[in-house]
Amino acid sequence: MNLKPQPFVNKRDNSIIAFLIFVGTLVVYWLTLARSLSFWDAGEYITCSSILGIPHPPGNPFYILLGRFSTILGLGVPHAQAVNFLSAVLASLAVMFTYLFTVKLISMWLQNPKQAYKAYLGGFLAAFYTAFSYTFWTNAIEAEVYSGLAFIINLIVWLTLVWVEKSRDFSHQNILLLIIYVFFLGFGIHQTSLQIAPAILFIVVYPLLRDNIGSKEFWSRLIIYLISLIGIYLIFNAVGKQLQIPALSKYMFALGSVALMYYHLKEKFQKKIWLLGILFILVGLSSHIYLLVRSELQPFINEGNPHNIPMFIEYVLRKQYGSTSMFVRRASFIYQLKDQFLKYFSWQFFNTEVIAYFLQIPQRFVQFLANLIVTLLGIGGAYYHYKKNKHSFAYMLALFLMASIAMVFVLNLSDAEVRERDYFFVTAYNFWAVWLAIGSLAIVNFFRKNKKIFGYLAIILVIMLPTINLFSQYKIHDRSEEYIALDYGQNILNSVEKNAIIFTNGDNDTFPAWYAQAVFDPKATEYIPETDNEYHPDKQAQEAISTAMAYKNEQCKGIRKDVTIANLSLLNTGWYIKQLRDLEGVMFVLRNRSGKPLPIEKQNEYIEGCETMRSSPLSPKIVPQDISLPVSTDFPDKSFVVNFPKDKILYTKDLAVLQIIKDNYGKRPIYFAVTVGDVVGFDKYLKNEGMVDRLVTEKAEYNYDIDRITTNIDSVYSYRGIFDETVYKDRNMSRLLNNYGASFMRASQYYHQHDDYENAIKYMRRGMDFIQQQQRFNSSLARLYLEYSYQLIEKDSTKAAFDKLETAVELDPSNQYLPGIISEYARITNDFERAKQILEKTNLDSSLKKNFFERLKP
User: Fold this and answer.
1) 348 FRET partner, CA 20 to 30 A, in 52, 509, 543, 648?
2) Distances (CA, A) of 142 to 541, 545, 558
């Protein structure tokens, strides 16, 4: 049984097929490519690529540099399209290398060149399934690091099999050095590039150790080594906690692995190879120097501010997100496996919603059938793989286990993640596609044994399956006309007055707004509302605003650069508070008990120590009792009182919000985006203006600026793609669009309170267009029509009144009060025939209808 890929594949034919797969995949990706930003991290990555910014930890520096390179090569193409296209290119390369390494795996059981078609077919099917699987395709059409990650991993797998094929007693060590380099270059795209490192090591040493020490001894040692390494991890995890070095366990685990490698391979490699390996690791990691250098220059986005060695180390180790251990479960492993990994697995192949709609059959049945096909074909492929060549199977199994079970265990996701995390497991689904392909080969082989024509029919069948998958996934991945995220960001910005400060909640309201400010996008539009002149910045505030505008005009090329975005999640960090103060013109002054400003050095010490220094006024506090906290400003007539219950925790972000409002209210307009859930006790001081709530000193239960609301929702906001049925809206988009609907509902509520039923109905109807499950509002809309009909009856507009009444019945035909209302209208208008027609549309029991018909006789 062969331990190596066999040379039965024609190199020229193989290269041509690989190139055609790359081009074909890239064409489909281009057709469905997002032309602007998407929600979540895409806006941040595009912006950072455009301006050479520093994204959220750990920074993905090599991806940002590639993104910047793509914007330069774009030759005038909007930067969003250029960076999105980078993802498409990297994903297409990943698909091509899926084909190439699958061909090598299958070649290990071929007997002669005549069987090469099996490798070509299997590689093509693996690539086809991978390219148009749900998560892989999503990553390929927007600015995301996971397409680059897939390319790096698949390139490494292919290079490893090339080395296995060529190596004789560990020759061709240059390929191994290249693999090491690519691993750590990929680390600069995403740190999980190392997820398959143990599997690659297994593939490299498996032939050598198996031959030298025997099969049983090999597996015994492997188990002992794994147990030993886990023990090292656990011991140094405890030591690391004591020494406050959370990553110490990972370093010692890696060091132990290297020590074992050196022990077994020291005679196979000269010392210079080990030294070159270290050098290639350092060169691969060198893209991280970008973080240090660029952060020092203070770009517009500079998350974590890793401008010095201590902050750089914290940044790369992701200390901002806290430390976790895979041995302290954040959710049960069964939950993580079933409700995360396997749930996401069920999304990957065959979009059941589209197929069920097309075939007009229940979606549950289609989902069952799809899961059955993917499971049985994959397991069958794995079994067929095992039977044909146990060594090839062992290589693939090692890769799949590291990308699936091990990944679930190490990632240790919580059961309260803020978003779906399917992208973490895309490598596992990529590898499963290989077994889907090999399972398809098993089907072809089975039918071909009986009769050649059956074999050809089987080939058609196995190609049809990934083709169905492609067509079922196409619509939901077509982002070519989707500008919803861009509009979301610009609509928030265009809601606020000049020089405003706006508090945002998270990724989906912050990143689109950052993008709109920093990146020139020909599809973006700017609008600045007229100010009401109630803001009076003092000299210090004016200078701060002027300095901030000079900085942002230099850094940014987009719209509404005058607006300061204050992200509440980031306000838990000292570096971000300092950035708002020093670069965004936000007044932020810490004072002593007598009200005098502290020396700037002391202020900086407190701000930088907000997460660790208990004496800092910005460190989290527990409210000892129910309190009403006065929030004074620099204007005696402008103050607030906010209430906090006993035992409420005021986090750094809450204390920072209070300080910003104290120092800036009256000098600059202050807003909260409607996406913000916790407004730090200022609920009653917010006046809604559409997608934003303005902070005002007048307290009210329902406080609306109807003129601003209607101007924004009717004239200012852009809703491109929202009402276009060809533009797919995922669950996240649909949830965010509810905020538009809520703005229309507020306008409807206002007009309802002022008996303007025509406008109340108009805005409710328009609001319902943005909201999922519109039928929830049918009874409310019916009530508006009923009340409108009462108003029309009083004005003797009987026909119009009946029209509104009829609409109310159509919206809410089960309303138990309808018969009485219809009867009353019939008596008032003497139009008994119309009353009967309307009564017929209700959902009343037929006998009750007959009874009312009798009562409606004139």
Assistant:
1) 509
2) 39, 34, 20
